[in-house]
Write a structure and sequence with these properties.
By secondary structure, the protein is an alpha+beta fold. The protein is 52% helix and 17% strand. It has helices at 9-27, 59-71, 110-124, 126-140, 147-175; strands at residues 5-6, 32-36, 45-46, 50-56, 75-76, 85-89, 100-106. The N and C termini lie far apart (45 Å).
C-alpha cells in the first residue's frame, strides 16, 4: 500500500547531498548527479524516497556505472533496463521513507532531459507542483491502492505534466 507524507524538503536536500558525496566516490566527481523527483520540490507530498539522476556520457560509461552501482549494493531492475536507462533501488524489497532510487540514464536522451525539465518546471511553477501533489492524494482517496496501481494511475497524469513541462521549457529557451 502506498503512503504519502508531507516531505521535509530541507532534510531531503541534506540527505541528497550526503548520498551524492558517496556516489561521487563510486562514479567519479565529474559525473552529472542531480536531485529529481518529488523530494526535490518544496511543499509537495510523496513517498519520501530520494530520487537521483546519474547522467552517463555514453553507453560504455552507462554499463560501467551500472556495474559499479550493483557492486556497491544497489539493486538494478532488469525490467526497466534499456540501452539508455536503468532504475536502481537502495533495497531489494519494497522501498519506502528515506530510501534512495537512482535513475541511470545516458545524457542528451529524451529520457534524461525529461527528468530535469520536469523538476525545473515544478520548481518554477508552484501551482503545477501543488496540483501534482493533490493528484497523488486523489489517487489514494480511491481506496486501498497497491504501488503498481498507484504508479499506473499516476503515470497518465505525469505524461501530461511532462508535456506541459516540455512546452514551458521550449518557451524558456525561446526567450533567451
Amino acid at each position: 500500500m502506498v503512503k504519502l507524507i508531507n516531505q521535509d524538503y530541507l532534510a531531503n536536500k541534506k540527505r541528497f547531498l550526503e548520498v551524492e558525496k558517496w556516489l561521487k566516490q563510486i562514479v567519479g566527481d565529474q559525473v552529472e548527479i542531480e536531485h529529481v523527483g518529488s523530494t526535490a520540490i518544496p511543499d509537495i507530498k510523496g513517498k519520501n524516497i530520494i530520487d537521483i539522476l546519474i547522467g552517463a556520457k555514453n553507453r560504455e560509461q552507462f554499463e560501467k556505472f551500472a556495474q559499479s552501482l550493483t557492486e556497491s549494493g544497489y539493486f538494478g531492475s532488469e525490467k526497466s533496463k534499456t540501452d539508455i536507462y536503468q532504475f536502481f533501488a537502495s533495497r531489494q524489497e519494497e522501498t519506502g521513507d528515506g530510501d534512495v532510487h537512482i535513475h541511470l540514464v545516458v545524457v542528451g536522451t529524451e529520457r534524461h532531459d525529461e527528468f530535469l525539465i520536469l523538476r525545473d518546471f515544478l520548481l518554477a511553477n508552484e501551482n503545477e507542483a501543488k496540483q501534482y501533489s493533490q493528484h497523488k492524494d486523489e489517487i489514494l482517496a480511491l481506496g486501498q491502492i497497491d504501488r503498481k496501481t498507484y504508479r499506473e494511475i499516476k503515470s497518465k497524469y505525469v505524461s501530461a505534466l511532462i508535456q506541459r513541462a516540455k512546452d514551458w521549457h521550449k518557451k524558456q529557451k525561446e526567450c533567451v
